[in-house]
Amino acid sequence: MPVPSDSFPVSEHALPDHLAALAIRPGDSAYDAVRHTYTRLGSPAAVLRVRDAEDIAAALVHARDSHLPLTVRSGGHGISGRSTNNGGLVIDLSRLASVTVLDADARLVRIEAGARWGDVAAALAPYGMALSSGDTGDVGVGGLATAGGIGLMARAHGLTIDHMRAAELVLADGSAVRVDAQHDPDLFWAVRGAGANFGVATAFEFEAARVDGVCVDVSVFDAADTAGFLTRWGGWIERSPREVTSFLTLATGPGGLPVAQVMTVYAGGDMDAARPALRPLGSIGAVLQNQLVATPYHRLLPAGHQPQYAQQPLTVSRSGLLHHIDDQVAHAIATVAPAAGIVQLRSVGGAVNDMPATATAYAHRTQNFSLMAATVPALRGDLDQRWDGLTPHIDGLYLSFETRTGPRQLSDAFPQPVLGRLLTLKDRYDPDNVFTNNFALRRPAGDGDVRKR
């Protein structure tokens, strides 16, 4: 149920007339439907449902002049919960949601940042096109497209950002820019992996993939031997053709027995080609349930557009990237599971690793797996203690799945020389640190150039 609007009292804040006309504030009938995210309760002083770059620029000016916390929201579904606040302004991009096919032959599409990925998939389906973009249709375009995008066809088509050809942003000074490989290429590089630090993205241009459908295997396995099962699954996916991408979630089944829910996508609608590629999956463990179907890609991730009300209580999450899942890694993951409400592994590698590490601000192009574990706040200490056993095996993290934001997490998300380059660009484009709410770039203490924090 939605949380009553007086749960976090907020003082009234005067807005200029132009922004007041866009605002949803405490006491408004629509406030409870826009104040929270998927994982976080929020009590912003105002949620501004902006219509264009001019509205965003005005909101940035007001937030700076009033010294208010500032948050940008595209969909509000992010696991890390960074798209709301208490007492500040939320720039809500939901009105900027168009999907336009610019050139069907070249598969060039323009997508506004407030669209949901499920709606994008549905809009591109009649053209026989798709973009691999996560596993949930209600995720907003802007958050994922500035972080990475580990989707259900990642091994076949790479990350979402790998298909970006241009981005439109409003910078900290209020200026609207369009960047691509020829126009401000440094900023275009930074947007693809660290974009939330540099501006409010309003739209992107992507080169979509030609997709004639997918074949999807959804299986539930007995995972009593959790470590052994993880080792076999990891080995299988690394040997699989790159058309195969698999997401594995550890869960508790009937009677408290551990099970593994595995969703595996073959990027192509030809079942005769998919069956031999997927057949070895059935031999990695005892199958409790199984279904294999061919389907249009967009049916995998419908967008429901339901209001977020912090319905997901697992608000503490940890992220790590892994090269392989050998016996040691598998045992460490199995040790983490009892303290986590969810443990999920997403296969990467394949086309993700075709991209040079220096091509985008997301530099993790050698790993084969992304690991996420989430729990409730009361079990944070237990999860962290168990997570420490994984640390020697982890090489990097995916920032959208990590709720910690300390120096260690920053260097894990952006290994050198990427971090140094990003900090230099941060000085150029956002010297006053206007954008600090989403995995903020910060120089280490005593690093010379002391900027306004």
List the helices and strands and how they pair.
Elements: H1 17-20, E1 23-24, H2 31-34, E2 46-49, H3 53-66, E3 70-73, E4 89-92, E5 99-103, E6 108-112, H4 117-124, E7 129-130, H5 141-145, H6 154-157, E8 164-170, E9 176-180, H7 185-194, E10 200-207, E11 209-210, E12 214-222, H8 226-239, E13 244-252, E14 258-266, H9 271-278, E15 287-295, E16 316-322, H10 327-336, E17 342-347, E18 369-375, H11 380-387, H12 407-413, H13 418-429
Describe this entry's structure for a reader:
With 453 residues, this protein is an alpha+beta fold. Mean pLDDT is 94; it is low at 1-11 and 448-453. 52% of the residues are buried. The chain has a seven-stranded antiparallel β-sheet with strand order 15-12-14-13-17-18-16. The protein has helices at residues 17-20, 31-34, 53-66, 117-124, 141-145, 154-157, 185-194, 226-239, 271-278, 327-336, 380-387, 407-413, 418-429; strands at residues 23-24, 46-49, 70-73, 89-92, 99-103, 108-112, 129-130, 164-170, 176-180, 200-207, 209-210, 214-222, 244-252, 258-266, 287-295, 316-322, 342-347, 369-375. 24% of the residues lie in helices and 23% in strands. α8 packs across α10 (327-336).
Question: Strand-residue fraction?
Answer: 15-25%
| Shape designation | globular
| CA-based gyration radius | 22 Å
Oligomer: single chain
| Backbone structural class | alpha+beta
Query: What is the topology, as strand order, of the major beta sheet?
Result: 15-12-14-13-17-18-16
Average pLDDT confidence is 94
The N- and C-terminal alpha carbons lie at a distance of 37 Å
Tell me briefly what this model is:
The chain is α+β, with helices and mostly antiparallel strands and 453 residues long. It contains 13 helices and 18 strands.
